[in-house]
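Take a specimen:
=====
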Amino acid sequence: MRNLITFDDAIENAFTIDIEVNEMCAGVHVNTIGMFFDEEHEGYELTVNWTETGDAEFDEAAMWAFYRDEAFDERLTQILLENGFSADAAEDVCGSESGMQEEGRASYDAGWLAAEVAAYVKAM
C-alpha cells in the first residue's frame, strides 16, 4: 500500500492514495482511482477518474453508467484487492449519492477503506 500514498507538502499530515488505471469502461478511458485524506487522516470519498470525450451527451450517459448501472463496481473491487486492500474494505465500497457524481469523476463511499488506510499510515 505504501507505493500508493503521496503526502501533500502543502497540508501537514494530509495525503492521497492514487492507483493508476488504464482501461475502458462505459465507453470512456478510466485513468486513476484516488482518495484524499486530510490532516486528521480522514478520507471520505473514493473517486474513479475518467477522460471526458467532449461529447456532452455521451459523457453524461457515461457518468450515469458508473452511478446507476454500477458499470465499474466489480472491476473497482478487483483493482482494490490487487493493490493490497482487504476484501472487507474493497467490498464495502459503494456508489455515493447522485449529487456527488460528475462528468469525468465517479464518486464512491469507502468508509472501511478509509479506516484501513488511516490505520496503515498511523502505523508507518
Notes: The first strand starts at residue 5 and ends at 7. Residues 50 and 104 are 5 Å apart (CA to CA).
